[in-house]
Each structure stands twice: as C-alpha cells, then as structure tokens.
Amino acid sequence: MPPANPYTKYIKQYQTSNITTATPEKLMILLFDGAIQFLVKAKNAIAENNLKERAINIDGARKIIRELMRTIDLENGNDVSKQLFKLYNRMAMKLIKANVQRNSGLIDEVIEDLTNIRWGFQKAIEIQSGVTTVEEVMKEQAAQDAAQTQSTTSETNIGDVQNAE
Questions:
Q1: Considering the chain, what percentage of its residues have pLDDT values greater than 70?
Q2: Mutual angle of helices 51-70 and 79-101, in 10-degree steps
Q3: Tens of pLDDT along 29-80?
Q4: What is the CA radius of gyration of the chain?
Q5: What global pTM score does this model have?
C-alpha cells in the first residue's frame, strides 16, 4: 500500500471550501465535472474488469444526473426544460444499461452529452457575466461544428482507403 499523501487533509479542505463558497452557477459546473469524472473512472473499471468500482462510479454519476434533474422547474419551465429533463432521464437509463452490460460505449455517449450540456451552461454563464457575447459563442460553435465535420469526413476517407485495400 502506497504511503498516505501528506497533503490529503489540505486538498479536502480546499475542495470543501471551493464547494461551500461557489455560486449556484459554479455548482452546476462542478456537478457536471463530478459526473464526468465518475464516468471516466467507471470506464477504467470496465477495462480492468473491476465490477465493484464500475458500479460505484456509475452510481455516483447517476446520482449527480438525478440531482441535475431535480434542479429543473417543470411546472414553470418551458419546452427546453422539459427536453433537458428527458435528456437527463435518458442518460440515467443508459448508465443503468451500461452497468449491467459493462458497456463503455454507452458511458461514452453519456460523457459526450454531459460535456455538451456543461459547455452550454458555461457559455450561458459567460454571456450573463459579460465575458462573452451570444455572437462570439455562435462563432465558436460554428467553428467546432466545422472541425467536427472535417474530422468525420477525414475518418470516412481513411475508412474508404482501408476498405479499398
């Protein structure tokens, strides 16, 4: 067993302070980050065939997603809030299936969804605080979409070349 980290106490104090002093917006980002970290650990546990760690980490991510679902005001919300609730619910169901099937692909899908939603929340916070504008965010999104399209096209071309061989 490796020696204990002498800074563990201070790291935990910092983390606790970071959470207790965070704005509601920052807490949302921390929830997304926590869920993604749990899922990365779950993928590693699947690769290592560690059933206990897989289950613990998938359950941790599911609990965070359920907490995110509780933050949505469905009674006073609009269609976006209802669609977000449905998306969170689909993610939670995928995680149950991923746990039973030991399926890293489903975990990857949930990580991608969480990452995209986190990005949207982060950009909304930046717009609200004046750090950026809607126009700048739209340009950034268009650039990301173009890069993803280029990447997908390149992967398809590589696949075509490999299939031709």
A1: 81
A2: 170
A3: 999 999 999 999 999 999 999 999 999 999 999 999 999 999 999 888 889 9
A4: 19
A5: 0.76
Sign of CA dihedral 125, 130, 134, 138: negative
- Would you give the distance in Å from CA 8 to the centre of its chain? 26
In the chain, what are the domains?
22-149 (1.20.120.340)
- The Cα 62–Cα 103 span in angstroms is 15
Could you tell me how far CA 165 lies from the centroid of its own chain? 38
